[in-house]
Amino acid sequence: MLEPVYQSTYSADTEPVDVIVVGAGVAGLAAAGHLTRAGLTTTVLEATPAIGGRMATEKVDGFRLDRTAPLLSTSYPELRRTPGLDTLPLRPFAPGVLLHADGHHHRAGATPTLRSARGALTAARALASAPRLPRNQSRSPGRSAGTRPGRLGSPADQSRLAMALARLAATAPARLATRAEVPIAEALATRGFPPRTIDGFVRPLLAALLADPTLQTSSRCADLALHAFATGRLCIPEGGADTLPELLAAALPPGTVRTGVRATEISTTSVTTADHGELPCRSVVLATDARSAAELLPGLRVPEFHPVTVLHHATDEPPLGEPALLLDADRSGPVSHTAVISQVDPARAPAGRALITSTVLGTPPDPAHLDATVRAQLARLYRTSTTRWELLAVHHTPEAVPAMPAPHDPRRPVRLLAGLYVCGDHRDTSTVQGALHSARRAAHAILTDLDAHPTPQEEPLENAA
Q1: Among the CATH numbers 3.50.50.60, 3.40.190.290, 3.30.450.20, 3.40.605.10, which is that of 17-55+241-303+408-463?
Q2: How far is residue 463's CA from residue 465's CA, in Å, rounded to a whole number?
Q3: Could you tell me the pTM of the whole model?
Q4: Are residues 210 and 399 in contact, defined by beta-carbon separation less than 8 angstroms?
Q5: pLDDT digits 0-9 by tens, 93-137
């Protein structure tokens, strides 16, 4: 892992800077990276001892345990556009997802990476015409069972599913954003998915992508999530979620990030801190979580949130045989999705041991017996005994993901006043992509207001998904 490049002190005689960023989460660090690359001097203040916000990883006996276990996509544009993330090592899951339905495992959604409408539809038609294994013919060892009629539909339904995903992949995000907006639960029937695959595949997939088990999320935001799924691969940062903020911090000049400095007041030209007095600057970016932002700027909207609970188990005998994201299409317990995460990223577990990470969405039922309830469900999902699995940690985050109910504005203003800006996943979409994009929007607004200019590598904001 990276060595910290941030400092835990702030000197009273520190020279004034162009921009002070309050909050060293993903959005704040990314904004500082864009501003620094454009030639502005920047300081990032973080109230806690560590950077990264919700992108945090706990180290326990050689295991690396993410607190909120966020899912990324290799197709997120901002992973390419943000300074420092060009070297971010991503570990992809197996293509598509693995679904547990009716006591069987089914592979679904494993479509090629698609870049054009013609290529998308050609690939989908090829999938539709590909020869199918006879129903009684077994697959090679280590492969999941073939598609069975029933909850996930027939082979024809699977072909129609591939076509629907291909059409989504071939549709520009800007066009998706012009569709009529309703809760995605109401819109699924109009998206071209075969009816038998909606409950068996699309609903559990969207619940996992959006952290929203009731699917009240804006259909426009859900379409963007499905577009990212159809054009890329689900993935995680190698070594833990904290790899991403550490790389962002490492791309900044030494001493840019100061931890343990709590802001108490902000204005367009200064930040007042609890222990270091008033710090002057030319502009301020507020990049904390939504609730903390509203405490510093009363009147800012605080959204509802989706709670997330992550359980980490260890075993010497890993289940499954592939790095797959496993969804429970039967909804047989509180776990939305799970994975033998050490098969996806071996760096997450010590040699000879396996790490299973499982995510519960919403408020957990009966917290006192959550582990026992989850173990029983995981035994069904992985088709193995979980009695001897070791519980390493349970991380419950009540405000893990800002909700995006319809109507949702995915481009909430980042410029509050000339000199005062705000960014974070609560200003765009509540994903890592949204946090990074809001940071770039805020940096662009600052550069415009200060009559500075982005470097030639800066891509137009309108190209972002």
Answers
A1: 3.50.50.60
A2: 7
A3: 0.89
A4: no
A5: 999 999 999 889 999 998 655 444 444 445 444 444 443 333 333
